[in-house]
Amino acid sequence: MKRRNWLAAGAVSLHSCRGKDANEPEYPGPPRPVAVLKAPGYGADLLDILWRGAQMCGLDARGKRVLLKPNFVEFDPGTCINTNVAVLAAAFELFRKLGAAEVIIGEGPGHRRDTLHIAEQARYFEQIPGFEESFVDLNRDDVSAAPGFLEDEPEMYFPATALAADLIVSIPKMKTHHWAGVTLSMKNLFGLVPGSVYGWPKNPLHFRGIDKSIVELNRIFRRTFAIVDGITGMEGNGPIQGSPKQAGVIVMGANPVAVDATCCRVMGLDPLQVRYLQMAYELGPIREGKIEQRGEEPDSVRTAFEVLDEFAYLRTPATI
Amino acid sequence: MDSALEARLQYLVSHQNADGGWSYYPGRASWLEPTAWAVIALHGQDGFGQAWERGWERLRSWQLSDGGCRPSAVVNKSTWVTALWVTAHCVAGIRDNGFNAAVDWLLDARGTDGALWRRLLWKVTGRGPAQNADFYGWSWFPGTHSWIEPTVHTMVALKLAARGGHRRAGEIASRTRIGEQMLLDRRCADGGWNYGASRALDIALPSYPECTGLALTALQDTAAAREQAGREASRDLPASPLANAWIRIALALHGNGRSSTAVSPRHSADLAVEALAALSEPGGNVPLLATRESS
Predict the structure, then answer these.
(1) In CA terms, which of A44, A55, A132, B157 is 20 to 30 Å from A33?
(2) B198 interaction partners in chain A (CB closer than 8 Å)
(3) What are the backbone dihedrals phi and psi of residue B161, each rounded to the nearest 5 degrees, phi first?
(4) In this predicted model, what pLDDT tens digit does every residue of A268-305 receive, in sequence order?
């Protein structure tokens, strides 16, 4: 057995000893709604699907300055790294229809520096009318300091566009992640951290701990909504080198913890074992009883996503 | 002056901010990175002296008391952009106390992958990266890992500083040698460079043309890089304006310069890329980035 496999086996047994019902603090607030909608493919009427999801969640965007934050990292025609342009285009239309005062699209890719070239490869310019006028490269936007990040970094710089938004809509791809287990609506906020200050990748976040940074970013940016592109997700060695996985769903909600927990259930993974969700208990509910599932029940649309050996402990009994 | 070069320099001047600096995209606040590349591109070009002077004054204002430079006026931390600030000084031939302090800052900085405890941890756990942990370079942000691009910019800056005669030339030679070893060690299987490592979780990573152009710019003295530059010269130039500019810069430094015009950003104007493209045009200032002893 390779050293890496030994480590993976160790991680699994440690987590199974720990158990799901440890006396951990729980989200003190009321149940939060999350909508799960079937979406068979990118050719479906996605605007209608998102509209129904928005109604189920009681989304009100009237008069708001809305920042849509897709997930585009790098482009590889052989796989599905980025939020599909059809989902982003439908979301763009949705928020206009909902009466938003302004709809901006912004992203700060974590690896490659030519943001607009990646957007072009992913067909964002081609498929979204007015993309160029609506897009802000969050890696190279003007920045301002926001206080109260982590204890050893009293202030953190963020793009002015993100700080000025009334509503940030996180639109990630449903993917597994080789460090965090999964990457969904909460991890997607890494793209709000400007590369012009912190680099490509945003390495200070890794040094402070990925899980901790995910939670802190979501603590700072609280006015959010999530639309998860789970039509074709990514399993295995995500977020870049994994394999496409058809899940056929869109998951939506205003509470990112509840949305990510629901996505985990759809993916056949146990959200109670996802470290960053455990750490985010003040921000939202993970347990089923605290999430009002609207639309489809997660169990009814469950599609087991493969995970790396290190994350075998995330699999739910039904998917092992 | 070549007409393509003149058009690019005019374009840059038309987008110079009132404070003398340049933003990444027109109409935004000035940042050190686009300002440094614009100042280097404008240096010594006929008819652009006034724009250079204003840009230079702005550039100088970004040095902090620790000797390093902030990336913009609102960020209170020195980062990798210090390397660009030093390179601009070498190009301008200005070597004052501020310059020496910035060189000191670069020599004191290092990617944390070079730390002894981290190398030991990686060896014991087997969880380290694929590359040789004895070779390290420079990080984007203090206290983090070495990455290809900040290592490249710092190596160019320090080599140019040493060429003009520097009191810490011995240390510069030692650090840039380790930096070269790091870059060569992280070369991808396809011969080029990724932004980070050549492998991750036992999987080979692809190279990216902008990173390959950058690495070849720092490796002007090595035979392996010269051979790779020859291979790059036989390929079509990349479509990405950023990658196109860096490959053109690298090819010119390795004696394979192109007579054609660089690719312009197709969509929003990108002033950092415009400045790099201006450097790479025939008659542009790429030769000022030459670090070879013979050049």
Answers:
(1) A44
(2) none
(3) -60, -45
(4) 999 999 999 999 999 999 999 999 999 999 999 999 99
